[in-house]
Design a protein that fits this description.
Layout: H1 3-16, E1 19-23, H2 30-46, E2 51-54, E3 80-84, E4 102-107, E5 118-121, H3 128-138, H4 145-158, H5 169-182, H6 186-194, H7 198-210, E6 212-213, E7 218-223, H8 225-231, H9 235-240, E8 253-260, E9 265-272, H10 278-281, E10 286-289, E11 292-297, H11 300-322
The structure holds manganese (II) ion.
Manganese (II) ion binds next to loops.
């Protein structure tokens, strides 16, 4: 199906349902929260009487992108489920997937699970926020200002300020249109996204000081509970700092691990600027993009095994480039 037809089909399905649930991945990032809320706002603006709920665990640090709705799945009547920014069913947050018949998936991760009969997957798109921007601009969906702000933030965040490889002329074209149509204030939006407490910068210094770097240019750190307490940061902030360790000469892939005591799980965040790491992450209850992935691991031994595999892939990467 060509893209134009697909976008029309998505619009038609939205139009034909009175109840719409929008979901995204567990452990959401700004793109996940921004895109789901933007789509909700656009649908509500276009079709005033529809019931549209954004579901999943709320994250206080991303409150400026919108709040989550409460959902009672037992009272739904022929709902449409729209799943954004997640390729696999097991990583969808906040819903019982098997309850839904009509499902739309819109995602920019490499294809994994089939979810519904309408699927728009573009693993070359910078973000799902970019895809939702395109959907709104190319259909009769309206674009309220708050939705435009969210979409801008989602694109900026997932593309690391237009610096990652899937930033394309299409990204810039859509962002230009977005700004032209909505008159958003970019400077204040950057402030929402990047303002942080000094404790986080101090903590970043702690990570930089304690990061282990192997001879194969793999860097890793298990962040201790004591360090998190000492610096007064929360664990979500700690793992988000992973993005700040790009463009370091001696490091080609890196991983930060925090232990989530409440859920008794090691949360691993992995980044790379060369070796592909998502296939390794997927072996450890994780996944993501080729150069940006995460994993949730039950026992510490597996964390060490994951590190060993990442180190190995760095070694291989270096060897291949020597030839
Ligand atoms: Mn994304």
């Amino acid at each position: 199906m060509n893209l134009g037809t697909l976008k029309k089909k998505i619009f038609k399905s939205i139009k034909n349902h009175n109840e719409i649930i929008i979901a995204r991945h567990i452990g959401p990032d700004p793109d996940a929260i921004a895109s789901t809320n933007a789509l909700k706002l656009a649908i509500k603006e276009t079709f005033k009487n529809k019931k549209v709920l954004v579901v999943g665990k709320s994250v206080s640090r991303f409150k400026y992108l919108g709040e989550m709705d409460n959902i009672d799945e037992n009272v739904l009547n022929n709902p449409l489920l729209i799943v954004l920014d997640v390729p696999n069913i097991s990583r969808i947050d906040g819903i019982n997937f098997s309850k839904y018949k009509d499902i739309i998936k819109i995602d920019h991760h490499p294809y994994e699970d089939k979810m519904g009969n309408i699927e728009w997957v573009d693993d070359k798109a910078s973000s799902v926020s970019q895809m939702i921007t395109e959907l709104i601009l190319d259909t009769n969906l309206l674009l309220p200002k708050k939705a435009a702000e969210n979409l801008f933030l989602g694109i900026v965040s997932d593309s690391e300020r237009f610096s990652l490889s899937y930033t394309s002329s299409k990204t810039f074209y859509l962002v230009a249109k977005l700004i032209e149509k909505s008159n958003i204030d970019i400077v204040s939006l950057y402030k929402c996204l990047y303002m942080r407490p000094f404790s986080e910068i101090r903590f970043q210094g702690y990570i930089a000081t304690n990061l282990n770097v192997t001879e194969n240019n793999f860097a890793y750190l298990k962040i201790s509970k004591e360090a998190i307490l000492e610096y007064g940061v929360d664990i979500a902030a700690a793992s988000n700092l992973v993005n700040n360790f790009n463009y370091i000469k001696e490091i080609i892939a890196w991983a930060l691990v925090v232990y989530d005591e409440k859920n008794e799980i090691f949360k691993v965040n992995i980044r790379s600027r060369g070796p592909v790491i998502n296939n390794i992450a997927s072996k450890y209850n994780g996944g993501g993009h080729p150069l940006a992935s995460g994993a949730r691991i039950k026992n510490e031994n597996d964390v060490n095994n994951l590190f060993a595999e990442l180190d190995e892939v760095c070694k291989k990467y270096n060897e291949d480039r020597k030839i």
